[in-house]
Amino acid sequence: MRRLFTGFVCLALLVMAVLSSCQKDESVKAAKDTSVQLLTDSSQKLNVTPVPGNYLAIQGTLEVKLKDSTYVFDATRDSIVFVNLDLDGKEYYGITAINKEHTVSFGISSPGTPIAEMAGDISGCQFLLHPNEKTNVEYTLTQNAKPQDYGALLMDKYNQDGILAKGTFHTYLATGNKAESNFNVVDGSFDLKIK
Q: Which residues form the signal peptide (predicted)?
């Protein structure tokens, strides 16, 4: 059941990334309205209610370090969204991103609401790679840990001093969904602005 719920959180984050990516592709030069609306059939089925505070970043970066590689999403060309979700009465916040070429996407979430200078537990995380005509590689939260040991999302700043969100995260992702699956340490940082 926990795996299914985590999948729903990740799916909601990725739906928002795809929606924002389409929005960004259509209006790169005229990105005045930074709010993201969830109006898809899939989000309705998940009982996802749009709440104030979903923002498409127009400046800044999100970095994800996995194995020996660092993946960088740049808000001036890629789509990076800071999300606040309500799933069946429970609040979550996080960051989701998809690159302009739609070959790399990432989403991470934490329960509750974002608070500056406070760390939150990781409730969902997914990293997808679709390299040149090859099979997709999907990393999801490891099953080797208890939910409270999935890592942390630390918000240094949130919605203050012209900064949308700034902070770091640390989690553990695996390519398999079994408890014995090998996992990888994933570290990252974000520094996002909306104006």
A: 1-24
